[in-house]
Design brief:
Elements: E1 7-15, H1 24-46, H2 51-64, E2 84-90, E3 95-102, H3 108-118, E4 123-125, H4 126-135, H5 149-160, E5 175-180, E6 186-192, E7 213-216, E8 220-226, H6 228-234, H7 236-247, H8 251-264, E9 269-274, E10 280-284, E11 288-295, E12 300-305
Bound molecules: aspartic acid.
Aspartic acid binds next to β8.
């Protein structure tokens, strides 16, 4: 690979965002958030920093932004609390870390990274994840930090109309980032509040390595968003990586194939993928996906609707 090539791709969730369905504020606010996330991640890649730092920085911005279902602005469980999921993977070493049901860490992506770097484990859950976070000295917040009036309204609407978990208006808002750095290393990060009204300790795909997140320098980095149960059943992120590695497919072919298969099972959502050669792709079967890309060629792309 020629030197100095880097690529960062991000998403803020896939779903029923067709033109005319978002308010002017939602549209502009989401675009501003995506732009800020791209800036944070690409500043690191442009100065020769590593992919893992870039995806973590990009995801932190989206976690801090209440427009997205991760960190502040996460959806509520049926009991009316926020339980946060996150994962990271380093494509160079295939080290990975994840948390599910975390409640007090301001940036769950940093907790997932701490699990990867400072514990012998890959995945920690609930009280244990919270205790590990405190031991690691990560920034803690009161649980109401994550709560927003709009997410509360969505929970009330779900309960009043006895809707299914597959979210109000089918708007998944999970966030993620994938990157390839100037050294040809890939990394992926995903962070989510899960689905509105989730119960019984339900865990989605976002914190599951191989389902909602995967990175392998021999193939690609993937972050997913959508109806998590389908992504778990297909092992979507690993499946895309495996197709590229073993069948020699490029990112677009592999991602489109797996999202097509997901659709055949009745699943909705999307993925972002970057490969070590700097190529990247978005693939989704919903009307829209909050997404963006920045590259060493100077590309700065932010989009929401399927036709952009
Ligand atoms: N994939 C997430 C989950 O199932 C939801 C989302 O993408 O917003 O938990």
């Amino acid at each position: 690979m020629p030197e100095h090539i880097w690529t960062l791709a991000i998403h803020g969730g896939a779903g029923g965002m067709a033109r005319g369905k978002l308010s002017v504020e939602q549209d502009a606010g989401a675009r501003a958030g995506l732009t800020q996330s791209l800036e944070a991640g690409s500043a690191i890649l442009a100065r020769g920093g590593n992919a893992l730092d870039a995806v973590a920085a990009a995801v932190m911005e989206l976690e801090d932004d209440p427009h997205f279902n991760a960190g502040r602005g996460a959806v509520f469980t049926y009991k009316g609390i926020n339980e946060l999921d996150a994962s990271v993977m380093d494509g160079k070493t295939r080290d990975a870390g994840a948390v599910t049901g975390a409640r007090y860490t301001k940036n769950p992506v940093l907790l997932a990274r701490a699990v990867m770097e400072h514990s012998p484990h890959v995945m920690l859950s609930r009280d244990g994840a919270d205790a590990f976070s405190r031991e690691q000295g990560l920034e803690q917040v009161e649980p109401n930090y994550f709560a927003t009036p709009e997410r509360w309204r969505q929970l009330e609407e779900l309960k009043a109309n006895k809707l299914d978990y597959y979210d109000i208006d089918m708007k998944y808002g999970t966030v993620g980032a994938v990157a390839v750095d100037q050294h040809g290393n890939v990394a992926a990060a995903t962070s989510s509040g899960g689905l509105t009204g989730k119960r019984w300790g339900r865990i989605g795909d976002s914190p599951i390595i191989g389902a909602g997140n995967y990175a392998d320098n021999r193939a690609c980095a993937v972050s997913a968003t959508g109806a998590g149960e389908f992504f778990i059943r297909l092992g979507v992120a690993h499946e895309i990586s495996a197709r590229m590695r073993m069948l020699g497919e490029d990112a677009k072919l592999a991602a489109d194939h797996v999202i097509n298969e997901l659709g055949q099972l009745g699943g909705t959502g999307g993925v972002i993928v970057t490969a070590p050669d700097g190529t990247s792709t978005f693939s989704f079967n919903t009307p829209g996906m909050y997404r963006g890309r920045a590259t060493s060629d100077g590309e700065k792309y932010v989009a929401i609707y399927g036709d952009e």
